Amino acid sequence: MVQKESVLIPIDKCGVWFTKIFHLYGGSRRRYAFINNFVKVSVKLTKPNNWVKKKSKLKAILIKSRKESLKLDGSLIKFKLNKCVLLKKRLTPKGRELVGSCPFQIKRKRFLSSFIKIV
């Protein structure tokens, strides 16, 4: 569960180190975003001479969050950091490779088919 001004770390290899949320999709009164929700982020820190520039505004999908969420079998899932994947269009990621684990909710959405390799 994240809100506006939360810091996210991208897990695809696109050269971005930190992003910050400035808009949550789903209405003007929406306060929180959960795993598998779309958010609008601003790039805060990148590698030098990267093709994704600092201060650029991108769409992202939330992959991991610190707040525990309930799975279908009744167990809880919780991660250490808030992480996202930066997108070009609806489900086309900016990076080619996904680094780390990915929850089952994203696998159900057939989001992972657009990656070449999962490291």
Q: How much strand? A: 35-45%
Q: What is the N-to-C order of secondary-structure elements (H for helix, E for strand)?
A: EEEEEEEEHE
CA-atom Rg in angstroms: 14 Å
Figure out the total of helices. 1
Q: Give the strand line-up of the largest sheet.
A: 1-2-3-4-7
Tally of separate domains: 1
> Can you give the mean pLDDT?
86
User: What's the architecture, going by CATH?
Assistant: Beta Barrel
Q: Report helical residue fraction.
A: under 10%
Quickly give the structural class: mainly beta
Please state the overall shape, judged from the principal axes of the Cα atoms: globular
CATH topology: Ribosomal Protein L14
Characterize the largest beta sheet: strand count, sense, and whether it forms a barrel.
Answer: 5 strands, mixed, barrel
CATH class: Mainly Beta
Let me know the CATH homologous superfamily: Ribosomal protein L14/L23
CA distance, first residue to last residue: 25 Å
Strand count: 9
**Low-confidence residue ranges:** none
Q: Indicate the multimeric state.
A: single chain
Supply the key terms.
single chain, 119 residues, mainly beta, Ribosomal Protein L14, five-stranded mixed beta barrel, 1 helix, globular
Note the topology.
Elements: E1 7-10, E2 16-24, E3 38-46, E4 57-64, E5 69-70, E6 76-77, E7 83-87, E8 97-98, H1 104-108, E9 117-118
Parallel strand pairs: 1-7, 8-9
Antiparallel strand pairs: 1-2, 2-3, 3-4, 4-7, 5-6
Structure in words:
The chain has one domain (7-118): Ribosomal protein L14/L23 (Ribosomal Protein L14), CATH 2.40.150. It has one helix at 104-108, and strands spanning 7-10, 16-24, 38-46, 57-64, 69-70, 76-77, 83-87, 97-98, 117-118. The mean pLDDT is 86. By secondary structure, it is mainly beta. The chain is 4% helix and 36% strand. It is globular.
